[in-house]
Amino acid sequence: MAAEAKYQQIADSLRERIQHGEIAQGAQLPTEIELMAEYQASRNTVRDAIKLLVNRRLVETRAGQGTFVVEQINPFVSVLTEEPDRPSIGGGDVYVSEVEASGREPTSGPLRVEIQQANAVIADVLRVPEGSQVISRHQQRFIDGTPWVLQTTFYPMHLVDQGARRLLEATNIFEGTVRYLAECGIKQVGYRDSISVRAPDENETAFFRLPADGRIQVFVHFRVGFDQNGQRFRVTITVYPSDRNRFVVNVGQVPPRGQAGRS
Fold first, then answer.
1. Is residue 81 part of a domain?
2. Which one-letter DSSP state was computed for residue 18?
3. Poorest-confidence range of 9-23, 53-67, 233-247?
4. Which are the contacts of 138, defined by CB distance < 8 A and separation ≥ 6?
5. Tens of pLDDT along 160-170?
């Protein structure tokens, strides 16, 4: 059997030191010169070892700063299935209660409410003319201080004419907009979900603190709500980085998480 290449030996040694806590999460690795001296290796061999650790997502190289151990994130599991009249996933008190139930701390950034012109995508989803006015409600969400979710919901302006004036207020609707709109006579009877995967854009990379090379993708979850007349009255676009989110879809009579298998 061929001997393991020198760069693999160095990578394995550094991996063990990281896993055993000798090099802490978020800490900077020794410099190339220090590693060359420690392992009696050439610069190219050290660089190959670091490249291997980068590919394994154990370390990341920051331009002009050095190489750092990637902080391992404990993923949060979101349940995508819910009753039609419940608040939207990630919204209001549902987000808070679900995160707190897992023993973690949820926080949110300031709510940003704007009146925008519908672009081609939003106009097509909501079945409104392109360029017509829509309300957008955008929020950043965090778990344990780590950026977790970006969420924007778009509503056609005619909902305000139907009495849903709180949509225009830059305050959280903690009972959930779905329940609030039901009180205004706009009852959600169903929704349609679609999920795509793509590389993060510049703003998402900065907010989620993702590597600039795009190797960590984001999930984009579209949820279109339908009212009692079959009309589309909202579209919620939620962006989740793939390194810290997992999803569950329940069908039929499924016990709550953590209770499966109990007698």
1. yes
2. H
3. 53-67
4. 111, 112, 113, 114, 150, 151, 152
5. 999 999 999 99
